[in-house]
Design brief:
binds magnesium ion; 13 helices; binds adenosine-5'-triphosphate; alpha+beta; OB fold (Dihydrolipoamide Acetyltransferase, E2P); BirA Bifunctional Protein, domain 2; 5-stranded mixed barrel; elongated
């Protein structure tokens, strides 16, 4: 019978990806979870996983002795174990080495077989079964690749924005009034008052351009999305930037270079993940194609879509166009002012059109951005036109009396971008614990 034990004095000497023949004769201690066991009668194989990779443990009865062999035979997939042993070259094992065990510590025995396998590229069970056991699901090779790519994405954003002299900020997530109108907010209790979870850092990041010029934030946004889609989460991560003394063309240029930087970093740092996923990054050319909103509406009407100037453009409608350049990244620019939030600056030449853009990847929206209004009277006027009470924005409007610089910025969904780059069907797989209208646990 296997017995579970405490960690005690056991400590790793090596990550599993470091197990290779060059280690020679020294004793190693490795730890991880069992991703596969193979029973060949008098030989047992265990594939162990840790955050660095995989290693093979090979136990021959004649080599390790009856007692240890009997223990190893009982180890089940998903158990959490440690092994002390020596390395032997083995061509067919990961990194060309296998570990011959001399001691086994079992920290936690897996008591149930998982309802899905962790090794393959695809899962045979539905997403809800997986999400109910998400931490186990996240042990799957494919998702491990996705989240290592997410790590590169986040690091490369921070590197790039810091190089461009942007300061990373954090803005309140518990707020008194809506940023973009009343819909889609989650109300909360704040002491004895009603408050809301922030749907975007919009107004705060704009204010911060007064003090820091260039700011960015990577943080949660909360939206009570009523519909069940594969591209909306109730809690998502937004990559927000705001830049002083810039307009929407300037920030589009930053955004496209940011995307190129991210894609290059993934190509460079995630080679094994891309190979496992059989995934290639999109080929990018600067500048990204730009389509004006009005031209697209004409094209969509020609393609037989029932769409009017002023309407939002749905992914469904975009699929009816057969423009090759629309398979990758492209911008839709100059949206109707009426379709955009109050802080978006109308064009000086034509008030009906705004200095705004969406970055798209195929039919999927990645980001929205614009030149912002930096004059108080104009902002108040736009609020009123959109039926918002300017009184409740007093905390915001007040700082416009102190030299708000012209500024522009964008917000981009981290999970949307990750989903697009890793070709996931469902945005829920691009986040650790998705929240949607039906799911508040785990
Ligand atoms: P959509 O039209 O796709 O619902 P939106 O125009 O309402 O998005 P914005 O307010 O422009 O969204 O937010 C900026 C970006 O944040 C979006 O382009 C998208 O990438 C991301 N985003 C917005 N809402 C969600 C959500 N519910 N889940 C995941 N990402 C989101
Ligand atoms: Mg948008």
């Amino acid at each position: 019978m296997l017995k579970e034990q405490d960690l005690g004095n056991w400590r790793k000497t090596h990550g599993l990806s470091e197990i290779n023949p060059a280690i020679g004769d020294q004793q190693v201690v490795i730890m991880g979870w069992v991703s596969a066991v193979r029973d060949h009668g008098n030989i047992q194989f265990i594939i162990l996983r840790d955050i660095t990779g995989e290693a093979q443990i090979t136990a021959k009865k004649s080599e390790v002795g009856e007692q240890l062999f009997a223990m190893i035979k009982e180890v089940k997939e998903h158990s959490s174990i440690a092994v002390k042993g020596k390395i032997r070259p083995q061509e067919r094992a990961p990194n060309g080495a296998e570990v011959i065990p001399s001691e086994l510590a079992v920290f936690s025995i897996a008591r149930k077989a998982a309802p899905f396998v962790t090794q393959g590229k695809t899962s045979t069970v539905g997403i809800d079964t997986r999400l109910d056991l998400r931490a186990v699901d996240l042990r799957r090779s494919y998702l491990q690749c996705v989240f290592r790519i997410r790590q590169t994405l986040l690091n490369s954003i921070r590197e790039f924005m810091s190089r461009q002299q942007f300061i990373e900020v954090s803005t309140p997530k518990m707020i008194a009034t809506a940023t973009e109108g009343g819909a889609a907010l989650f109300p909360i209790f704040y002491y004895n008052r009603e408050a809301f979870l922030a749907q975007s850092p919009q107004l705060y990041k704009e204010q911060l351009t007064m003090a820091f010029e260039n700011v960015f934030e990577i943080g949660p946004i909360f939206r009570a999305e009523p519909s069940r889609t594969n591209r909306h989460l109730s809690e998502a991560t937004s990559i927000d930037i705001e830049k002083a003394f810039a307009d929407y063309n300037d920030v589009m240029s930053i955004l496209e270079r940011l995307i190129v930087n991210i894609v290059d970093s993934i190509k460079d740092r995630n080679k094994p993940d891309l190979a496992f996923m059989e995934l290639s990054m999109p080929a990018l050319e600067l500048p990204f194609p730009k389509y004006t909103y009005s031209d697209l509406i004409d094209k969509l009407q020609e393609a037989g879509e029932k769409i009017q100037w002023g309407d939002d453009i749905s992914p469904q409608a975009l699929k009816s166009l057969s423009d090759q350049r629309m398979n990758g990244f492209y911008f839709i620019v100059d949206w109707p002012t009426s379709a955009k939030p109050f802080y978006v600056k109308p064009s000086a030449a034509d008030e009906k059109i705004s200095e705004s853009f969406d970055l798209m990847f195929g039919p999927l929206e990645m980001s929205s951005g614009s030149t912002r209004i930096n004059r108080k009277d104009q902002l108040v006027e736009r609020m009123q036109k959109q039926g918002l009470k300017s009184d409740s924005f007093d905390y915001h409007l007040r700082v416009f009396d102190y030299g708000m610089p012209p500024h522009a910025g964008f917000g981009m969904g981290l999970e949307r971008l990750l989903m697009a780059l890793t070709k996931l069907d469902n945005i829920r797989d691009a986040t650790f614990y998705p929240r949607d209208i039906d799911r508040l646990a785990p």
